Structures are given as C-alpha cells and as structure tokens.
Amino acid sequence: MRSLLLLLAVAGGAWAQPFSAGVKLGVPLSDFLSATESGDTSYSTITNRYIVGVEGELRLPFGLGIELDVLYRHVNFSSTTTANAISAATSITTANTTSNDWEFPLVAKYKFKAPLVRPYVEAGVAWDTLQGLTQGVKTTVAGIVTSSSSTSSPSELSNSSTRGFVLGAGIDIHALLVHVTPELRYTRWGARQFFAPGLLSSNQNQAEFLVGVTF
User: pTM of the prediction?
Assistant: First the structure.
C-alpha cells in the first residue's frame, strides 16, 4: 500500500511539472504533393505515411501551455517525358527528386479541466524547410543512356522554405509518469514549395494525425 501511495504521489507531482519533452509520431491525412500527366510528360509521387519527431511543452497556469515540435518526413516525386529523336527513335527523360522535409510548429494550447483525460485546443504558426534536395535526370534513346545529371535546384522548386498557421485539437491522457496526446492538426501553408503548371503542385492544406508521448 505504501508503494502504491508513493507512486500516486510521484504521478501527481509529474502532472504539475512545468516542462515536459518526448517524441511525436503520426501519419499525414493529406498528400504532400498532387501529381498528374499531360501530353508527353507525366508526374508521379508517393506520400510516405509516417511523420516522426520530438516535442517540448511548457505548461502554464490556468490550463495554458506552449508547445514546440520538430517533425520530419521524406518527400519524393518523379517525372517522365517522351519525345521522338531526329533518328525517329524514342527519347525518354526521367527525373527522380528526393528531399528531407523539416517542420517546426509552435502552438499555444488550452487544456480543459478534467482529472486524467483533458481535451485541448491549439493554435499557432509553423515553419517548413527542405534539406538535402536532389534531382537526378537521365535521358535514354533506344535503351542507351545519352546523358545524366543531378541538381539541387530543380525547375519544379518554388520555395525551399515556407510558413503557415496551425489549428488543432486533441486529448491529454495522463498515465502515471507519461502524457499521451493524440490529436488532429491542420496547417495552412502560405506558399507552394513545388510547382509545375498543370502537372505538379504542393498542397497548401495539410492535415495530420499525431500522437505525442512526453515525460
């Protein structure tokens, strides 16, 4: 019984600690890129169904708090363009683009009063930046590679960084020394990061399901 009372006391003290940190995992509910084809050129992309990162939260009086996250995802897309060469052979140009995408949301939170499960709402701003962007381009004619190159500034790149505003809602589940916070989050970005007219575009509306685990 004494051990149980001690554990409950420690858990209660952990709830009152002003700062917590931990990991944040999630899945995107919307595609990062929209791709299509037109004429002899086609784009394709696969949304990686994971988001990983870390978070820190400063808890303030009256149910208020400030949270800063560092979130990572991988971005990739490819394009294929076909054309008839002078020799009447078919020329095929393929471009494969990959990048690391880092997102930094900073939100203010309000948690409603409840003993163990506390609903909350949040709002704030976010910054997003691309790192390690690489596009490899290869042209083949009749199955023979005629040229290849790579660049860190592809023609589809509009903005390597952008910012936007964030809205979200979730619940804070306090289990002993751990806070588990599943939430839905919406971000509206101020600018596209990738754009090819009629073929490829970054989605400025972003929806995510995230789960934080902090101590």
Answer: 0.87
